[in-house]
Write a structure and sequence with these properties.
It contains eight helices and two strands. The protein has 173 residues and is mainly alpha-helical. It has one domain: dinb family like domain (Four Helix Bundle (Hemerythrin (Met), subunit A), Up-down Bundle). The chain has a two-stranded antiparallel ribbon.
Length: 173
């Protein structure tokens, strides 16, 4: 059963604990949404330019990974990381071709491993870290709080796409 309260979490500063609460609620709803999907469901393409549910789940994990690197290590992806995550980040034709033929556990494990790393990092951060300011190369300012808000908003957006794909699947059966 999901707990729909945003509350501080043990082991974390107050605001970081609330952020963790939001991240975990977002993830738990996503996991609930995909819990009964088959491999065929995960690979289904509604159109020849669509993303599959599996590709969207890989993308959700990739966005979180990238934000770990940017916010916790304060750097961009290196060549090895980019090679590993590029397809899931960019999706498109390569994503349609390469992200498939995996069972649900594959995607859930990927999401879980990335999230566990996030939580480990966040345990060692304090609330003031959330507000530490940086600038993109185009001189646009951001802080860590925004980066982690974006991780949630991206997942919620793609969960909406997953729900739409599931409705198409249901109508095709």
């Amino acid at each position: 059963m999901l707990d729909y309260r945003i509350t501080p979490r043990e082991k974390f500063d107050d605001r970081i604990g609330e952020l963790v609460s939001m991240l975990e609620l977002t993830r738990n709803v996503t996991l609930q949404e995909i819990s009964n999907l088959s491999q065929d469901d995960l690979d289904f393409l509604a159109t020849n330019t669509s993303n599959s549910i599996g590709a969207l789940l890989s993308h959700i994990a990739s966005i979180e990974f990238v934000h770990q690197i940017i916010s916790f290590e304060e750097r961009d992806l290196n060549e090895s990381e980019l090679a590993e995550w590029r397809t899931a980040l960019e999706l498109g034709e390569k994503g349609r071709k390469d992200i498939n033929n995996q069972p649900l556990d594959y995607y859930v494990n990927n999401l879980t491993q990335v999230r566990e790393r996030t939580l480990t990092y966040l345990e060692f951060k304090n609330d003031s870290w959330l507000f530490k300011e940086h600038q993109w190369e185009n001189d646009v300012s951001y802080n860590h709080y925004y980066l982690w808000f974006h991780v949630m908003e991206d997942e919620i957006n793609h969960r909406g796409q997953i729900r739409t794909i599931k409705r198409v699947l249901k109508n095709n059966k």
